[in-house]
Design brief:
301 residues; alpha/beta; Arc Repressor Mutant, subunit A; D-Maltodextrin-Binding Protein, domain 2; 3 domains; 9-stranded mixed β-sheet; 10 helices
């Protein structure tokens, strides 16, 4: 299937915008990449790239051709997966884009549980926010998306939707853990560790605060949930996280529900591109995720 390898040359140049960088990533000579691009342009009768002083940019014809390449590559992966499934090998590759909140605990457990039954299946996991996850799907860099507050789009097929409460998150030794009921106002007397602006949970919290008399002055803000998790281990601070992201595997952090009326909640969506036939491994993992997302805490039991 050498012709598919040559098509990958075009796709790689389109991604990085440089023949030299693409050649390095493909482990081939730049001259080989240039030659194959020229051959394809001759066959198409139109230029695929604009040659710029500092790189390569897709032409309108190139945009169409790269979309064809990515669609064909994804279809080949599906066919390969079907063939492997028929042979009983149960091999395959699952490519998933997910929210940060799922990366530390829930998703590793879900992958581990799946691989116990299918040890030959490989995974590529890409962490992205709700604004960029669709781009990853549309570029065929992922089969599935598991993302909090992913925006519905006509080309998005929702496989599952799971309500997520925004909860307070703190170390198990924090005094607020023992409080019978917890309100947002109780949290402001403690250092606040908030996710950076632009994250879905922070956007929900800010909208709620705009309608509330409670005012927050965060001690720290970060776009890294791992940093926030680490900070809660070292200071008696309070953070906020969606419920699945606040799961711990026997760790020291505790989630508490906020009792304020109308405190925000959103949707964790499992999705794929509409009309795309998933590889067998990806389809099976999607079904596996649906089962565990219905009762996420049971996965850690």
């Amino acid at each position: 299937m050498n012709h598919l390898r040559f098509l990958r040359y075009v796709d790689e140049v389109a991604r990085v915008g440089s023949v030299r960088q693409a050649a390095e990533r493909l482990h081939v000579a730049p001259s080989a990449v240039i030659r194959r691009i020229q051959d394809l342009e001759d066959e198409l009768g139109a230029p695929i790239f604009e040659r710029l002083p500092r790189g390569m940019r897709l032409t309108a014809a190139g945009e169409l051709f790269v979309a064809y390449i990515r669609d064909r590559t994804a279809e080949l992966e599906r066919v390969r997966s079907n063939i492997e499934d028929l042979s009983g090998l149960r091999r395959g590759l699952v490519r998933l884009v997910c929210s940060q909140a799922l990366a530390p605990v829930f998703l590793p457990h879900a992958v581990q549980a799946f691989r116990e039954a299918h040890p030959a299946v490989e995974f590529e996991v890409n962490v992205a926010d709700h604004l960029h996850a669709l781009d990853v799907l549309r570029d065929f860099d992922s089969d599935l998306a598991l993302v909090f507050n992913l925006q519905p789009e006509p080309d998005l097929q929702i496989l599952g939707s799971y309500e997520q409460k925004l909860v307070a998150w703190m170390h198990h030794t924090h005094p607020l853990v023992e409080k019978p009921s917890l309100r947002l106002r109780d949290c402001v007397d403690w250092p606040l560790a908030l996710a950076g602006r632009g994250t879905a949970g922070r956007e929900m919290l800010d909208r709620f605060l705009a309608r509330s008399s409670v005012r927050f002055t965060p001690a720290v803000q970060s776009n890294s949930f791992e940093f926030l998790r680490g900070f809660l281990h070292r200071e008696q601070a309070v953070s906020f996280q969606i419920s699945v992201g606040a799961l711990t595997d026997g760790g020291d952090l505790v989630a508490r529900e906020i009792e304020d009326h109308g405190f925000p909640r959103g949707k964790l969506l499992l999705a794929q591109l509409r009309g795309r036939r998933l590889p067998v491994a990806a389809y099976s993992f999607a079904e596996h995720l649906k089962w565990h997302l219905a009762e996420p805490a049971a996965l850690l039991a």
